[in-house]
């Protein structure tokens, strides 16, 4: 979770930019670019500590490193030119991943006030990232403050939730469930078969005529020897 100091720094950075960058979306863009710029330099510094090499600010891009950008001997106009040139050329840096390259694409400095940039970068310099999750927390808070989180479609699952889900799935795959399957339900009534059940005789209703008894087969008139009205033989 984002701590109080980081929230305060983001709010301060917005207050510094609001006079030169009134558009809230442009504020988000400028703060995000500066945070990632500082974050890349932090990763280079961490890589150098155990004897590794810098990855982002190397070769021709070493002159744009954060330490040189924040050098006390650098004047305001020099800082303005160096930072503006650095973010403009960063998409061409072969040492940065494609995600960062897309973020720096078409990036530029929308103001030319050295004092504003100096105060702004001083606040960004106070950020320290020992884990990439902090960068996501800062960006998520920035969007929530501007009330554009839903509109911008920016949502992020925290790293500890992702790790927990991965561990749970891995544990379930390694240890299959020992619970026996549930027994099928058995009905107490005898089974009925719809295919062999007799067709029920329809019951007479008030509107239906009464059922007549089945009459014996009648003899054909052609073979009758006596009229049907004779009760007894003569």
Low-confidence stretches are 149-154, 193-197, 204-208, 214-234
Cα radius of gyration in angstroms: 43 Å
Through-space gap between termini: 121 Å
Note the run of SSEs as H and E: HHHHHHHHH
What is the mean pLDDT?
A: 75
- Tally of DSSP β-strands: 0
The coarse overall form would be globular
Overall structural class, as computed from helix and strand content, comes to mainly alpha
Task: Identify the notable features of this structure and list them briefly.
mainly alpha, 234 residues, globular, single chain
What does this structure look like?
This protein is an all-alpha fold. The chain has 9 helices and no strands. The radius of gyration is 43 Å and the shape is globular. It starts with a helix and ends in a 60-residue tail after the last helix. 18% of the residues are buried. Mean pLDDT is 75; it is low at 149-154, 193-197, 204-208 and 214-234.
